[in-house]
Amino acid sequence: MNVNSNSQSTRVDLLLLADMVKPGTRVLDVGCGDGALLRILAETRDVDARGIEIVQSNVNQCVAAGLSVVQGDADTDLINYPDNAFEYAILSQTIQATRRPFDVLEQLLRIGKSAIVSFPNFGHWRIRSQIMFRGRMPVTQNLSYDWYDTPNIHFCTIKDFIAMCEELEAKVVSSVALNAQGQRLGLKIPFPMQNLLGQQAIFQLSRG
Amino acid sequence: MGLLAFKARMIQVEQKTKGTAHKEHRASERDADSLFVHFPENEPLELDCGTSLSPFTLAYQTYGTLNEDATNAILVCHALTGDQHVANPHPVTGKPGWWETMVGPGKPINTDRYFIICANHLGGCLGSTGPTAPNPATGKPYGLDFPVITIADMVRAQARLIDYLGIDQLFSVVGGSMGGMQVLEWASTLGSRVFTAIPIATGARHSSQNIAFHEVGRQAVMADPDWRSGRYLDEGKQPRKGLAVARMAAHITYLSDEALHRKFGRNLQDREEITFGFDADFQVESYLRHQGYTFVDRFDANSYLFMTRAMDYFDLAADHGGELAKAFEATNTRFCCVSFTSDWLFPTEEMRAVVQALNAVAANVSFVEIETDNGHDSFLLNEPELFDAVSGFLSAAARTRGLSAPAQTRDEEV
Question: How many whole angstroms separate alpha carbon B72 and alpha carbon B116?
Fold first, then answer.
C-alpha cells in the first residue's frame, strides 16, 4: 500500500529509489500499490521485480499489467520468504502504515541482501510547526489524511529511523533526504537540517 | 544417439506439418472430431497404483499454430467432467466449447498467438482410454478393472502427448479445479518443461469436505441398480439416475448461496402455488434436475468414479514429506494463481497455501483473488478480472519468452 498521496513527487522519489537498484537483480517491493515502482524497475533496471500488496484491487490491476504481484500483508507474510531471496527488499512509503515497523524492517533485512526504505519525514519543519502553532495533527500535501482515517499509523522522523536502524544493528549504506517535489536536497545541507528540511527520506540498509 | 535425435526431429517436423494441415481443415469445416494419439503395448504408462497401462490412447484438440521453435504451446487441462472441446462445439451436446470465453482469436489465451492443446484426461470418456475402453485381457470394457489413476498419472500421460507433438517446454499450463491440480502437478514434477503455470480455483490437495461430496456422488452411482457392480455396459444399461443425482449434488458445490438466490430465489417453476407434492415446485429443483439429466447423456458413470477418486487422492504436500514448498523447490516457472471470493469448494485459503509455498522458494508468483458471487464455476464464466489477469500475465511472459505478438494486437503491446 503506497500511501503517499502526491503522485508527482512520488514519481521523482521512485526514480531516485530505482537508481539505487543494480540492473539485472531480483527485487521485492513490499507494499507495491498500483505497481508504479515495479514498472519503473522493470523498464529501466531490467530486474526480476516482484511485489506484495495488501489491497486486492491494486493487486489485480498490477497482474493485469503483467507485473508479478501477490496479495499479502507486510506485517504477516514476509516470514514466508527464505533468507537472501532477493538482492533488494524495498519498502517504499509503506513503513508508516505497518503495525510493527521494527519487525517488518527486520524481515526486510533477512529476505533482502539489502533493504531500501523510503518514508515521509515527520521531523519536517512544516509538520513541527503545525503542531506547534495550530495545535492540530499535521495535514500536508504529502500526508493529506485526517488523524482518524489515516492508514499511516507509525510516523517517524529521519532521526527516529536512524535510531531504529541502530537498534536493529543495520548498516546505513546510503541515505538521501528529499524536498516536497521529491528531489534530492542539496548535498551540503548538514544532517540535523535534513531532518528539518527533508519531506521524505530514502535509506539503503544492509545487515550490520 | 545421432540417429535417435534425427528421428525425433523428423517426428517433430511431421507433427508440425500435420498440425498445420489440421488447422486448415478445421477452419473450413469447423468440425469437432478429435485428434488421437495411440501409445502401443511396448510403451506402457507406469501408474502410481503400481501397475502400468498399455496400450492407451489420448484424444485431444489443438487450436492455433505451433511456431518454428515450438515455444508457444499452451496446455489447457480440463476439469472433472470437462473434455478436450475447449473452443469448438461439443460433438455430443452441440453446445459451444467449455472455455470459449477464455480461448480463441483475440481472447486471453489467444489462438492467433499461441498453440493450444487440450487432451481428454486418462480415465475420461470422450476418446481417451478409460473404463469404457476395451480391456485387452477380456475384450470387454474395463469397467472397475481399469486401474485407479491419479492426477500425476494423468499428467504423465499428457507429457507423452507433449513429447509426441515435439514440444520440449510448454509456454504455459492452464486449468481450473481438477485441471488446476494438474497444473500444480506439472509445475512440481515437470517444472523445467513449464515456462508459466496458471492454476485457477484449485488447491494443492482435496479437502475432507470435498472428498465427502465426492463420496456422496459415488454412492449415488453405485446405489443405482443399473450400475450392476460396474458392468452395466456389458448389459446395455446405464446408471442414469444415480449419475444424475451425483451430478446434482456436485453442481450445488460449484455455485454459491448468493448465486442460487440471485438466479432462483424461492421462485416456483411454471406454477402459481406449491403443489404439496414432490414435483419440482421450485425453479432451483427444476434447474438441478436438468443439470443432472443432461449430464448423463455425455458422461460415463464409471469414469465419474475414477475422476473423482483421482481428485480425492491429490495431496501435493503429502508427496513431499508434508511440506508443500518442497514440491516447488528451485522452480523457474512463473505462476499466476487465481481464486474467487465465493468459491467454497476451493476457497482462497487453499490457493493462499500454494502461494505461501511458492513464496517460500522465492518463486515468481502472482496471486489474484477475484470478487464474485458465482462460486467455484466462476472460472468458466464471464469474469472480466480473470480475463485481464490471464491476458496481462501471459502477454508479459510472452515478451520474456520472446514470442512475437500477433499482428492485430501488436500496437497495443508496444
Answer: 8
